[in-house]
Design goal:
Bound molecules: adenosine-5'-triphosphate, D-gluconic acid
Shape: globular
GO molecular function, one term: gluconokinase activity
InterPro entries: P-loop_NTPase (IPR027417), Therm_gnt_kin (IPR006001)
Number of domains: 1
Keywords: ATP-binding, Kinase, Nucleotide-binding, Transferase
Number of strands: 5
Number of helices: 7
CATH topology: Rossmann fold
Family: Belongs to the gluconokinase GntK/GntV family.
Strand order of the largest sheet: 2-3-1-4-5
Pathway: Carbohydrate acid metabolism
Order of helices and strands: EHEHHEHEHHEH
Largest sheet: 5 strands, parallel
Strand content: 5-15%
CATH architecture: 3-Layer(aba) Sandwich
Amino acid sequence: MQSPTSPSRLCVLVMGPSGVGKSTFAQALAEAMGASFIEGDDYHTSENRAAMSAGRPLTDEMRQPWLIALADTVRHSRGKRDTVFTCSALKRRYRDLLREGIGEMRLLCLSAPRALIRQRMIARKHFMPAELLDSQIEALEAPTPDEYAIMLEMSEGLDANVARALKLIGR
Ligand SMILES: Nc1ncnc2c1ncn2[C@@H]1O[C@H](COP(=O)(O)OP(=O)(O)OP(=O)(O)O)[C@@H](O)[C@H]1O
Ligand SMILES: O=C(O)[C@H](O)[C@@H](O)[C@H](O)[C@H](O)CO
């Protein structure tokens, strides 16, 4: 039997505020690794989606069921294959909740200048409005040294960042 703390497959969390480029980067990374890709946004409750679409930031309580459902899916996936997943995972306690459900994971924390993120959010078609960006950045608790996160600056270009991430995670 496999315990959540002794998984056989690599699990990578791609985190950071809305619009920073998690989905774009994580899909490219998963493809380069031959890993499964899981999009965190697909596990929100309909209430959460409605709130975000209406420009209301999520509360800790609203994020709880989302994080639990996502962790459940990722745990099953990483039991079979290397898995890359996205989740804003803005606060330490959210990341701890994910670790509780999933086991060990590598953290890739994406950042970009606020103005660039805002520009990209305005340009895309998505339920998350650019007006929520400030609340995302305010809520963000950067990973602490004990989380061994790899920090990636997204204005540097997708291919360079994928290559750097592969090297740093040893793939
Ligand atoms: N390296 C890049 N160069 C140019 N545009 C990019 C790059 N990365 C992402 N984008 C664009 O920026 C927008 C936001 O990216 P993406 O949807 O991947 O962010 P996200 O962090 O997953 O957002 P959310 O958490 O809100 O789902 C998209 O329109 C995407 O096409
Ligand atoms: O924790 C949160 O505030 C939300 O989950 C957001 O970050 C969204 O998931 C997402 O990024 C929207 O596209």
